[in-house]
Amino acid sequence: MRKGIFIFLLAFSIVFASNTKEKIKDSKNSLRSSQAMSEQLSKKLDDLAGDIVSGEKKLRGISGDITNLKGQISVLETNASKALIELDDLTKQNKELERTQKELEQNMIRIIAEDLSFDLLMSATEGKQSEESIISSQILTKLNAITKEDFKRLSQNYEDTIEKIKNKSNKISEINSSIKNYRRKQSDLQNLESTQKNTINGLKRDKEIYSKKLAKLQAQQDELRKTLEQLAIMQKQEDEAARAAREKQEKVASKGGKKGEKSQPMSGGYQTSSVKKYSGVKTIAPLDSYTVKQKFGNYVDPIYNIKIFNESVTLRSTTPDAKVKSVLNGKVVFAKVTPMLENVVIIENENGIHTIYAHLSQIAPTVKVGSVVQKGYVIGRVRNDLTFEVTQRNYHIDPLEMISK
């Protein structure tokens, strides 16, 4: 009888130790996946940092071009302002010339009329010219010559002024055209500057997202390392318990009996998670009504553009605060809140299967480590998204292969 009890204890210790080893392997696999993604995110952060530096350098160049254009526009506006003042002066001068020209024209008409009257008078009194009439004739002739000269000079000044006004107007048009072109270039550069700033801000936002994701991954890695440390301690204790049970069995056995074989030491390395097809009977889903938000297996993260192997599925409940049910009969081996996965329940099922329910908003008060639960038993609630994972010994199983659609 005692021998039977010892054998039972030994078998129980070996099975329990085997489960712990499987948990250690699963934790190490998860840690390795997390580290791989962490390395990819770190590389992505380096690339983003380079893009931000390059973008900011380009932005400084654009800002310099805008500053130069503003300086050129300022010079052109000053020149245009001066030209407008000169044009205004020339316009006033031209108006004055036009007024003087009209006065001269009137004087010319008067002089011509007087000259004509004098000629008629002289013809009527021909042969009877007095000394006074001769002097008057000479004065009129002289005045006529002077007036004609003034008129000629004034006309030339008028034409010169008109030409200056034309040239000045052309110059102002050219300056205004240059200002318009520079302003258009300035507007294009400002639009480019705005686009570049938006690009840099987008890169910085991406960098912040990646940094948070990386920090989250590092926190998960720390949690996994702590779990591994705890499991290693448990493994050591279980190995010691198994050894003690084996020694007791050996003492009960006959002196000539063979000693039990020693258990193989746990390997210090770990391998990438393996996947196997589920071959059992279909079972219920953990949620009554849901959609599949994230499938099992390889996928490219839409935000981070990184290829990731997803060892679980994410099920989104169509109703808030939904009940989460155990999909198989089993025993609760883990039930507590974690920093990264919120409330987590792990149930040990038959045939080496473990079902993991993460991101629970709460765990049912009756669910404790060691509790035996039946299929369909409510183990907790979820606000929206449930992370559901299934393992069988050292393999991962697509949870959607297990549950009925």
Strand content: 15-25%
| H-E order | HHEEEEEEEEEEEEEEH
Sheet with most strands: 9 strands, mixed
Number of helices: 3
Oligomer: single chain
The portion of residues assigned to helices is: 55-70%
- Number-wise, the strands total 14
N/C terminus separation: 50 Å
What value does the Rg take, in angstroms? 51 Å
In round numbers, the mean pLDDT is 74
Task: Summarize this structure as a short list of keywords or feature phrases.
three-stranded antiparallel beta sheet; nine-stranded mixed beta sheet; 3 helices; Helix Hairpins; Glucose Permease (Domain IIA); 405 residues; Cell_wall_metabolism_enzyme; signal; rod-shaped; metalloendopeptidase activity; disordered N terminus; alpha+beta; 2 domains
Question: What's the structural blueprint in terms of helices and strands?
Answer:
Layout: H1 2-124, H2 131-252, E1 274-275, E2 290-294, E3 297-300, E4 307-310, E5 313-317, E6 322-325, E7 330-338, E8 342-348, E9 353-360, E10 362-363, E11 372-373, E12 378-382, E13 385-392, E14 395-397, H3 399-402
Parallel strand pairs: 1-14
Antiparallel strand pairs: 2-5, 3-4, 5-13, 6-12, 7-8, 7-11, 8-9, 9-13, 10-12, 13-14
Give a quick summary of the entry.
With 405 residues, this protein is of the alpha+beta class.
Please explain how this structure is put together.
With 405 residues, the chain is α+β, with helices and mostly antiparallel strands. The chain has two domains: 1-253, Helix Hairpins (Orthogonal Bundle), CATH 1.10.287; 273-405, Glucose Permease (Domain IIA) (Distorted Sandwich), CATH 2.70.70. 61% of the residues lie in helices and 17% in strands. The chain has helices at residues 2-124, 131-252, 399-402; strands at residues 274-275, 290-294, 297-300, 307-310, 313-317, 322-325, 330-338, 342-348, 353-360, 362-363, 372-373, 378-382, 385-392, 395-397. Strands 1, 2, 5, 7, 8, 9, 11, 13 and 14 form a nine-stranded mixed beta sheet that branches. A three-stranded antiparallel beta sheet has the order 6-12-10, with no helix packed on it. Strand 13 and strand 14 form a beta hairpin. Helix 1 (2-124) runs antiparallel to helix 2. The chain is rod-shaped, with a radius of gyration of 51 Å. The chain starts with a helix and ends with a helix. 18% of the residues are buried. Residues 1-12 and 256-272 have low confidence and may be disordered.
